[in-house]
Design brief:
By secondary structure, the chain is an alpha/beta fold. It folds into two domains: about 270 residues, Aldehyde Dehydrogenase, Chain A, domain 1 (3-Layer(aba) Sandwich); about 190 residues, Aldehyde Dehydrogenase, Chain A, domain 2, CATH 3.40.309. Helix 1 packs across helix 7 and helix 2 crosses helix 6. The strands form six sheets. A seven-stranded mixed sheet has the order 14-15-16-13-12-18-19, sandwiched between helices. Strands 9-8-7-10-11-21 form a six-stranded mixed sheet, with helices on both faces. The chain is built from 13 helices and 22 strands. One of its GO terms (biological process) is gamma-aminobutyric acid catabolic process. Keywords: Oxidoreductase. Its EC number is 1.2.1.16, 1.2.1.20, 1.2.1.79. One of its GO terms (molecular function) is glutarate-semialdehyde dehydrogenase (NADP+) activity.
Length: about 475
């Protein structure tokens, strides 16, 4: 912790907040403060914006190969410091070290992917149909960006946004979640070491998000917002972005259905459920939220899942052998407790877990609920915890209707051995991504995003850089 930056990163320099304010970063395994970091206010946000604006023109003219090589060097540095970054992440948000190491590799891959995309930005030249003009298409960076990242994947969500912005030639102001600022500050230090010019990336850590973000969005100098977080906050940011017509990308909440048909391989289905539910202690927008299991296999599926969930070891993420770390904070745990209590009051059967352990930290046990009432609150709320809620269904049309009966549409999971059914059901689900006989869909080479109230745009994949580029059309008369 002693080598981790705790100041704001503005214009290539580490600085304190203008008013001297700081905020604690707590360890969710103990509830104690790890350290204090600078707590930015509006003046700091404006300084960061000014640094990004001043750096934009020169950065946009930088050769694509130069941008590519900076990202490649940062990728290599991240991998070299896997253990250091993993321990930092576990300390500030709780995930077990094994998962944290996996996130470091995942985060690094975004920089490698977009280092390759940086040199593949193309345009085109063609003659228009009337024969009078040639159309020359070029692509240029959208301009200074505001990037807002969540606490659940603090390193990967930073690289998933910074990578394409750097590759496209955009400058940035990054505002990480107040619970997990350290990963973002460490990432800024790595990029500076990799050769990123001063002012291209600026990091403002703050507990005063409204004071920092709203003036930037309304001011007109920030031309792009990329946000990952809750749908409610995303809707507020969209409204604030409207005044200056800021281009937006939104990766918002999810309410993922996990559908197990009668012909599913139950070993695959339970394996998939463990990944889709328990990755990051269930604190993921892609987490399976509603388990729809065909009535004929629901009891056996529930038994197997409860056995697997009950065998997981809960404890501090730094301890050897731990599978499940603490939830992010007491408010997050209280939400999970309330949702489980409501389901039980409505008749759900607790197959395993369901009781908050005594002692320090924000721990909650892996929990499986069967016979869940469709009216339970956790059916239309993003749980963000290690709770699997099982409901039964009898036919395909019924389960598709119920799976789609939500304002969210990020991801769905389908388990069946029938190819026709697999394709048919996947096509009918109102989601941006489908895991077919797998519980993991996230990959830097794939376009990540949802439909309905789960967001706008896509991150990652070949289309991820498009969110940071504009087209310019040049009409050239045919002589």
């Amino acid at each position: 912790m002693t080598d981790t930056p705790t100041q704001l990163f503005i214009g290539g320099a580490w600085v304190d907040a203008a008013d001297g304010a700081t905020m604690p970063v707590d360890d969710p395994a103990t509830g104690e403060a790890l350290c204090h970091v600078a707590d930015a206010g509006m003046k700091d946000a404006k300084l960061a914006e000014e640094a990004a604006v001043q750096a934009q023109e020169a950065w946009a003219r930088t050769a694509p190969r130069v941008r590519s090589e900076i990202l490649r060097r940062a990728y290599e540095i991240i991998l070299e410091r896997t253990d250091e970054l993993a321990h930092l992440m576990t300390a500030e948000m709780g995930k077990p070290l094994a998962e944290a190491r996996g996130e470091v590799a995942y985060a690094a891959e975004f920089f490698r992917w977009f280092s390759e995309e940086a040199v593949r930005i193309d345009g085109g030249l063609t003659t228009l149909p009337d024969g009078r003009n040639r159309m020359l298409l070029s692509r240029r960076p959208v301009g200074p960006c505001l990037l807002i990242t969540p606490w659940n994947f603090p390193l990967a969500m930073g690289t998933r946004k910074i990578g394409p912005a750097v590759a496209a030639g955009c400058t940035m102001v990054l505002k990480p979640a107040p619970q997990t600022p350290l990963s973002s500050l460490a990432l800024a230090a790595i990029l500076k070491e990799a050769g990123l010019p001063d002012g291209v990336l600026n990091v403002v850590t703050t507990s005063r998000a409204g004071e920092v973000c709203e003036p930037l969005l309304r001011g007109g100098r920030i031309r792009k917002l990329s946000f990952t977080g809750s749908t409610a906050v995303g809707q507020l940011l969209l409204a604030q972005s409207a005044e200056a017509v800021v281009r937006t990308s939104m990766e918002l909440g999810g309410n993922a259905p996990f559908v197990v048909f009668e012909d599913a391989d139950l070993d695959k289905a339970v394996d998939g459920a463990m990944v889709a539910k328990m990755r990051n202690m269930g604190e993921a927008c892609t987490a399976a939220n509603r388990f729809f299991v065909h009535r004929s296999v629901a009891q056996e599926f529930g038994r197997r899942l409860a056995e697997r969930m009950g065998a997981l070891v809960v404890g501090p993420g730094t301890r050897d052998g731990v599978d499940v770390g603490p939830l992010i904070d007491r408010r997050g745990r209280a939400k999970v407790e309330e949702l489980v209590a409501d389901a039980v009051e409505r008749g759900a059967q607790v197959l395993v877990g369901g009781r908050t352990p005594e002692g320090p930290g924000c721990f909650y046990p892996p929990t499986v609920l069967a016979d869940v009432d469709p009216g339970s609150r956790l059916m239309d709320t993003e749980i963000f915890g290690p709770v699997a809620a099982i409901l039964t269904f009898d036919d395909e049309d019924e389960v598709i209707r119920r799976a789609n009966d939500t304002p969210w549409g990020l991801v769905g999971y389908v388990f069946t051995e029938g190819l026709d059914r697999a394709l048919r059901v996947s096509e009918r689900l109102e989601v941006g991504m489908v895991g077919l006989n797998t519980g993991l869909v996230s990959n830097p080479a794939a376009p990540f995003g949802g439909v309905k109230q789960s967001g706008l745009g896509r991150e990652g994949g070949r289309v991820g850089i498009d969110e940071f580029l504009e087209y310019q059309y040049l009409a050239v008369p045919v002589s």
